[in-house]
Amino acid sequence: MEFKFFYHFGNFLLMLKGMFSRPENMKMYWKQFMQQCVDIGVGSFGIVFIISLFMGGVTTLQTAYQLVSPIIPKSTIAQVVRDTIILEFAPTLTCIVLAGVVGSKIASELGNMRISEQIDALEIMGINTKGYLIAPKIMAAVLMIPVLVAIAGFLGVWGGKEAGVLSGIISSEQFMQGLRQEFKAYNVFFAMAKSYTFGFIIASVSAYYGYNVNGGALEIGKASTTAVVVSCVLILFMDYALTAILL
Amino acid sequence: MIELQDIRKSFGEKEILKGVSTIMEPGKVNLIIGASGSGKTVMMKCIVGLMGVDNGKILYDKQDFTAMDEKEKKVIRQEIGMLFQGSALFDSMTVEQNVMFPLEMFGKGSLKEKKSRVAECLERVQLKEAAKKFPAEISGGMKKRVGIARAIVLNPKYLFCDEPNSGLDPQTSLLIDKLITELTQEYNITTVINTHDMNTVMESGDHIVYMYQGQKQWEGSNKEIVFSKDQKLNDFIFASEFLREAKEMRQLELFKDGKWREQLKKEQDGK
Ligand SMILES: Nc1ncnc2c1ncn2[C@@H]1O[C@H](COP(=O)(O)OP(=O)(O)OP(=O)(O)O)[C@@H](O)[C@H]1O
Ligand SMILES: [Mg+2]
């Protein structure tokens, strides 16, 4: 893979700039946006459901394994699980998975439209294809991915509780008590800030690679792989940057 | 009217269009013919602005298209209908929705009017029964016809068709040619067609541009073409024994019409 950072970054910014123009027909853009919301939100709910339950369960078991001291109350486990999930696992892990699910879908959809000249056909009708195809995807991702992350947070904590109770580590009451200890609303804000950022990265980077495919069907596969890899790397990088800045 | 002035286009070192100039008039079917790989598709994409030209001007009714910004181009493009070589149908939509799409985006009027317009266009390409099918479920020739229906649904002022009848059986092919000719005359459209179909050339070529190695090798009407002495053109058009015979027949036929005697004389004098 060639590494032409400034070339891609410049083109990426131009693509974002190109999205801004008056929609030719607001109703059609709205329809497209709704369609994307359903695709991204409902389409990836299943996988988010599964990973967040297990992620919560594993976090509880591991925390219990590490906190063996008798002077630490059991409820602390719940507190640690809650914070780990809200701060890191729900936003970052979910978004890494979504980069695979949503990112590859966006990149291959646009890539296919590009090589089969569907994008040209839209362009010839006098439609701003960046505005019509890319902007609704980015907006839908920025709206739906934080929702998915929030759901993942709840499910993760719930999965953690169930795993703790099922394995006899902690009682349901102790867990609920721990959840309420030293709860900081700022953590939720932090998680949301991360998920907005990640949502934007996933949709815009994948759209960039998909929209600019040229060549044949083989290139679509390459573009979606690149889109997923680049999104993941950027997510991890921004995860670190945001943590350093906001926490 | 579309006017090309000295259009040049290269991909890297390779020069595909080496300075092409011509005028495409409204109400006429303008054909671009030439061997496979001679740059017909590239030329069409340059005219509609999907590819930038390296040099030269393209004028749509005297307005310089090459000098326009995106916003002005969009206005011209809303008057363009185009059929792509690979049809380029939206594969997430049914045939009906494909044809409906430009109407939904730009059309005025009620949903009922739009629906009846779609039905009318599908009727004209004889595809009414396939309205609910997806592009993946229909044949290549049917896709072409859907592409044509989508291109004409907004009554364009300029119509571009990249090989509208390749992959069609002779009968359907003729039907498409007739449809395009009718529309062109009925609505005074400036129609540009890429083709290597000899039927199209002889039946509907009001104005023919023959492209050879990136240059305009010959230009004229389907009446003039049978009298042309251009060797390259003759090798290309009248490639088989059958077509050469057809050419002679056509010459005789036109010859009965007095005017063509002068034309023949002019050609033979080496005009
Ligand atoms: N995007 C591109 N990049 C580089 N070269 C290209 C590109 N598009 C076309 N070409 C080259 O331009 C030349 C002309 O191609 P074009 O598609 O215009 O041919 P054509 O006349 O339409 O042929 P056909 O009748 O087979 O459709 C070919 O040699 C092709 O390799
Ligand atoms: Mg071609």
From TrEMBL, chain A:
The keyword Methyltransferase does not apply. It comes from Chitinophaga arvensicola. The chain crosses the membrane at residues 6-21, 42-65, 85-104, 138-158, 188-211, 223-246. GO terms for cellular component: ATP-binding cassette (ABC) transporter complex. This is Phospholipid/cholesterol/gamma-HCH transport system permease protein. GO terms for molecular function: phospholipid transporter activity. Keywords: Membrane, Transmembrane, Transmembrane helix. InterPro entries: Permease_MalE. The lineage of its organism: Bacteria, Pseudomonadati, Bacteroidota, Chitinophagia, Chitinophagales.
UniProtKB/TrEMBL annotation, chain B:
PROSITE patterns: ABC_TRANSPORTER_1, ABC_TRANSPORTER_2. Pfam families: ABC_tran. The keyword NAD does not apply. It comes from the Bacteria. GO terms for molecular function: ATP binding; ATP hydrolysis activity. Residues 2-238 form the ABC transporter domain. Gene3D superfamilies: P-loop containing nucleotide triphosphate hydrolases (3.40.50.300). Keywords: ATP-binding, Nucleotide-binding, Transport. This is Phospholipid/cholesterol/gamma-HCH transport system ATP-binding protein. It comes from Chitinophaga arvensicola. The lineage of its organism: Bacteria, Pseudomonadati, Bacteroidota, Chitinophagia, Chitinophagales.
